[in-house]
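Q: Hi! First time doing this. I have a protein sequence and I read that you can turn it into a structure. Is that right? Here it is:
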Amino acid sequence: MNNQASQPVAKRIKSFYRAIRAGLLSIGLQSNSAFSLTDEERRSSNQISVIVAVHDGLGVTRRCLNSLEIFGGSAEVIVVDDGSKLAEVRRMLGDCCARNSWKLVRRETALGHSRASEAGVTVSTKPYVCLLNSDAIVTPRSWWGVIQAFESSPQVAVVGPSTSQTPTAQQVTRALHCRRYWKDGQIWAFAEKYVAGQLGKSIVDLPMAGGFAFFIRRNIWDKFDGFDKNLPDYGNESELCRRLKQSGFRVVWTKASYIHHLGSETYGRTLGIQTINKRCLDADSYIQKKWAQ
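A: Yes, that's right. Below is the predicted 3D structure, encoded as structure tokens:
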């Protein structure tokens, strides 16, 4: 009984100290500052198709799409509604796409993030594709660094920006601790400061790029037939990166771009932690068997 009674107290204490840490790490980041795309960011965005797979998650999806309205620039935005059940989400997607002249693909049955992403790629027209999670928030420093990385070498097939939450080296510790505390204005202020401090050390080769904002050349996607059809949601980016690297292509992280990732806020919440863990284990097992053969 004592242990059970102490758990909520311990949880509240931990939450309190996390909030204090986030507050200290947020010093100097004004949430009401004005930001806009530079000319180079806007020109770079014109080469990108941004595909957002959505499955409910009203609040975070609204933040994601709002950030694209502000900083999407000239990107081609394609929203794929992967069987959302909430009428408010479906209505919001329709209104937002109509207002911005974005493409909207509706699927009545949810088939998972990978299949939804593929549906978006099918109707994309730009030379580079960004598979953007609906719990990710783009910033005024999202596009130029990515395009610079692609243009640095024709062997660069996949590029990932810096972020706040991902299993790869792209994760920035300060942003990780603050990822759910920062308002959008603070996220954008951090992106400006972070990218400004990365000049001259922006491109790093990686085994794989995180899936929260997965940039890939469209012709490479087509050549390698996209994601493995046996992976509906988890493990897909790592498996594709493995195929690309085996064929001599590069997967890189650019520190000259920053896209914020809240993490496990849409598909993760609707599926539940146990289901996610099982799907991750199943995906790992499948990938290991595939490559062992």
